[in-house]
Specification:
Layout: H1 2-13, H2 17-20, H3 73-77, H4 86-89, E1 103-105, H5 122-125, E2 189-191, E3 196-198, E4 204-206, E5 209-217, E6 221-228, E7 234-241, H6 242-263, H7 281-293, H8 304-315, E8 324-329, E9 334-340, E10 345-346, H9 361-380, E11 383-384, E12 393-395, E13 403-405, E14 412-413, H10 448-453, H11 464-481, H12 491-500, H13 511-520, H14 551-554, H15 564-568, H16 575-588, H17 592-606, H18 614-620, H19 630-634, H20 653-660, H21 667-672, H22 679-687, H23 691-710, H24 712-716, H25 748-751
Parallel strand pairs: 2-8
Antiparallel strand pairs: 1-2, 3-4, 4-5, 5-6, 6-7, 7-9, 8-9, 10-12, 11-14, 12-13
Helix pairs in contact: 6-7, 9-11, 11-13, 16-23, 17-20
Bound molecules: adenosine-5'-triphosphate (ATP).
Length: about 775
């Protein structure tokens, strides 16, 4: 696969073997910063040397950047490294796609407002994203403050605000400045139909994207490199497993139900063996399995995680946040997000219990500043990341200088939804990775008043910003020490340590950094600094000799909270197009077996031995297919396997009904049908050669979608059908040579226990983003 990827890349993209092997680049020798005290030491193990060109953060600065925020003289005189120039970093604008699939183009979703300057008091211009109880340091003005981590927003003489009347009462005033977008146009494409193929040479592609190496795996998604064969541009393609998301959503629903039961005094006295009996483990497993298998059983919010991620990513526009290029909804089971590629990989690869060579303080500072810039932008726009960790902070360039945050999977806009009455500390639905998780989010055996006394109690609606600050602190700690701030194999012990133990900062750490780490990792959220207040942090600014870029410029691109409709439509999951796609897939995957079976049933019912051709049956089902892609014509997938299938010999009652009713699809649809297979469908077509595997997955999903369109009610009750539907490929045991897997979370048993608790240690113990935890009983 790897050599073929290289050949493909060379052929289509003009990218040399070096670029294809993006994970092990040979970076140029580091150029050290101006200050001799901060000379970079040997770069850490496994990490190519950073290019420490002094103006590392300069690429984010627009040309018109005010002198007050320029880097030091030394730095500003140094030329920008070519790899980090804004032009080099901006993804090129994709050409108009060929009319090969249905494509809906949306206009840019980011609005830029130009507001007439209105001088205001800088101290009130941009209130902190969360209001903390007053502390002694708050009483000082920021200018006069000598605190190492000032508590107030930096003064901003140029700040202007919107007309307060136009503001939602729930949203604080914000500054509006034009900032040139590093990501260029924020327009993106939503592709309703798609096809995936795998050639005999093993090269897979989705639409015009040729897939390459796996870049990473998360809790519910796999990320692979993809080359646009039309433009040669490289992207990262994130394939979500909706099935996994449904499991997470169902587990969360169960957890909340149990919590409510406990609060109402129910659910106690069931005896030992939690979850036994009615509503217990057995039924929990059933519910989770059902949720995973059937999109309709898990309730209306079952895909909220991915939809929210997509909706947010479509809207953000910041040089330190990875942007979205295209969204493709391939099948009812998978969705694809085409993202900006971050070729340099994670800023630190650190597994639980491991220790790696740390960055020098100066290296860490240059990286951390960029995280702060990205998070400040999110917080300013009332978005909480909630899963900040080194795995989600990637170098976008091979020179490993420019950092971008990915994975907004657990981001939520700060004020929606409001935490429910049950969302008290320790009972919150916890998203993020345990090792980087703030103490107030973790389960505790302590009573509420004890927590209040310790400052660990959260105020409603003000949960997340300080949680991000903690995660930033844990990430910084990992960068400069090469290990996690708290480590334990047992998650409960890990939680205890995070909540109670003081963080152990090595004596080698400089005083300013120690101060910063101590404040970021303060147990009480109210004692942590706000992100904007970091603008004047001595360590981050190298004692003010290397100031942060202007805060106002950094947050100048205003984004609006995605509406419910935008979240709903984040993925173009239209039943109609799903039907069209699936009926095409049916043809190409030998699904005419089902038609043959139905024909027999029909004949039996009619008392005749019909010998109608398969094609006639296909037409009757409205399965006309136009193949206009050379790939599809030449692909083996376009040669249907018509062998009878053992599992398809049992007709679906509903599909028989459809056929008996003589339904036809509208002619227009027949004209526009495209072939559509998911990556895994295409792959399984070649790796699972048994008739069962050929007929099981998309066949049934195609039938499901057909039913969905016309008989949603019947669809929902199909699990009660006396004749069970054949299992989809995802339900069937995977063959050993099946190339795809889902981050170790394919089955509910792997992801969560019978009580519906998602296990913490799915990714080496530290990465379980978006997982749901249950407080210990
Ligand atoms: N744009 C990108 N470019 C390069 N690699 C990426 C990109 N996005 C993600 N990755 C890699 O893929 C991995 C998994 O991606 P991601 O974190 O988005 O998945 P996830 O399922 O949301 O993970 P999590 O479990 O943290 O929620 C990342 O840790 C990273 O190494």
């Amino acid at each position: 696969m790897a050599p073929i990827s290289k050949i493909i890349s060379t052929l289509f993209c003009g990218i040399g073997s070096d670029s294809n092997d993006g994970r092990s680049p040979s970076p140029p020798p580091p150029v050290l910063t101006s200050d001799q005290q901060h000379k970079a030491a040997t770069p850490p193990h496994e990490l190519p040397a950073l290019n420490f060109a002094a103006p590392l953060t300069a690429p984010e600065l627009p040309k018109s950047h005010p002198p007050s925020v320029q880097a030091s003289d030394d730095a500003s005189s140094a030329p920008l490294p070519p790899a980090t120039s804004p032009a080099a970093l901006s993804p090129p604008i994709a050409p108009v796609p060929k009319l090969r699939q249905l494509v809906v183009s949306e206009p840019p979703s980011i609005s830029h407002y130009v507001i007439p300057p209105t001088p205001i008091d800088p101290l009130t211009a941009s209130p902190p994203p969360f209001e903390r109880p007053a502390t002694p340091s708050d009483s000082r003005s920021p200018a006069a403050s000598t605190s190492s981590t000032p508590r107030l927003y930096p003064s901003s003489p140029n700040l202007t605000v919107t007309d307060p009347r136009s503001r939602s009462p729930h949203r604080p005033p914000r500054g509006h400045h034009r900032r040139s977008s590093s990501t260029g146009s924020r327009s993106f494409r939503e592709t309703l139909n798609a096809f995936a193929v795998e050639g005999p040479d093993g090269v897979r592609s989705v639409n015009h994207y040729v897939l390459g190496e796996v870049l990473g795996r998360g809790s519910y998604a796999t990320v692979e490199k993809a080359i646009d064969r039309e433009t040669g541009h490289a992207y990262a393609i994130k394939e979500f497993s909706k099935r996994r998301l449904r499991q997470i959503a169902a587990a969360e629903a169960l957890r909340r139900e149990r919590q409510a039961d406990r609060m109402n005094g129910r659910g106690r006295g069931r005896g030992r063996g939690r979850g036994r009996g009615r509503g217990g483990a057995t039924s929990a497993s059933r519910i989770l399995q059902a949720a995973a298998d059937d999109p309709d059983t898990a309730g209306p919010d079952n895909l909220d995680l991915v939809k929210t991620e997509v909706a947010i990513m479509k809207k953000v526009d910041h040089p330190n946040l990875a942007s979205v290029h295209e969204v493709i909804d391939v099948t009812s089971d998978d969705a694809l997000l085409i993202m900006e590629l971050c070729e340099g990989g994670p800023i630190l690869k650190l597994k639980d219990g491991e220790e790696v060579k740390p960055y020098t303080e100066e290296e860490a500072r240059l990286i951390f500043r960029q995280l702060v810039l990205g998070i400040a932008y999110l917080h300013h726009n009332e978005i909480i990341h909630r899963d900040i960790k080194p795995d989600n902070a990637l170098f976008s360039d091979l020179a490993r200088t420019h950092v971008k945050l990915v994975d907004f999977g657990v981001s939520k806009f700060a004020q929606t939804p409001q935490p429910s009455a049950m969302d008290k500390p320790g009972n919150l639905s916890v998203a993020g990775s345990p090792a980087y998780m703030a103490p107030e989010l973790l389960p505790s055996s302590k009573k509420e008043d004890e927590e209040e006394e310790e400052g660990l109690k959260l105020e409603d609606g003000k949960v997340g910003y300080a949680c991000d600050v903690w995660s930033l602190g844990a990430t910084l700690y990992a960068l400069v020490t090469g290990r996690l701030p708290f480590q334990a194999e047992d998650p409960i012990e890990l939680f205890r340590q995070i909540r109670e133990d003081p963080v152990d900062i090595p004596s080698t750490v400089s005083e300013p950094l120690r101060n910063l780490l101590t404040s970021l990792l303060a147990k009480s959220p109210s004692a942590r600094p706000s992100v904007p207040s970091l603008w004047s942090d001595p360590w981050l600014t190298f004692n003010s000799t290397d100031p942060m870029p202007s805060y106002e410029e950094n947050v100048s691109t205003e984004i609006q909270e995605p509406s419910g409709e935008e979240v709903d439509h984040a993925l173009a999951a239209y039943r109609g197009s799903a039907f069209l796609a699936m009926s095409a897939a049916a043809k190409f995957k030998g699904l005419l077996n089902a038609a043959m079976v139905r024909r027999k049933s029909e004949a039996a019912l009619a008392g005749s031995s019909s010998t109608d051709s398969v094609e006639a049956d296909t037409k009757a089902r409205g399965g006309g297919v136009m193949v206009d892609s050379p790939e599809m014509v030449s692909s083996p997938i376009a040669s249907p396997d018509l062998r009878p299938s053992s599992t398809s010999s049992t007709p679906s009652p509903s599909s028989s009904r459809n056929n008996l009713a003589g339904r036809r699809r509208p002619a227009a649809r027949e004209q526009t049908t495209m072939s559509s297979l998911s990556i895994s469908d295409a792959t399984s077509r070649w790796t699972l050669s048994t008739p069962t595997s050929v007929s099981g997955g998309s066949a049934e999903r195609a039938k499901d979608d057909e039913q969905d369109e016309d008989e949603d009610t019947e669809m929902r009750s199909r699990s009660d059908s006396p004749t069970p539907m054949p299992a989809s490929p995802r339900q069937q045991p995977r063959t050993t040579d099946e190339p795809r897997e889902w981050g170790g979370t394919t089955a509910p048993s792997a992801a969560m226990d019978e009580a519906g608790v998602v296990k913490p240690d799915e990714k080496g113990g530290t990465g379980a983003g978006a997982d749901v935890w249950e407080d210990p009983e």
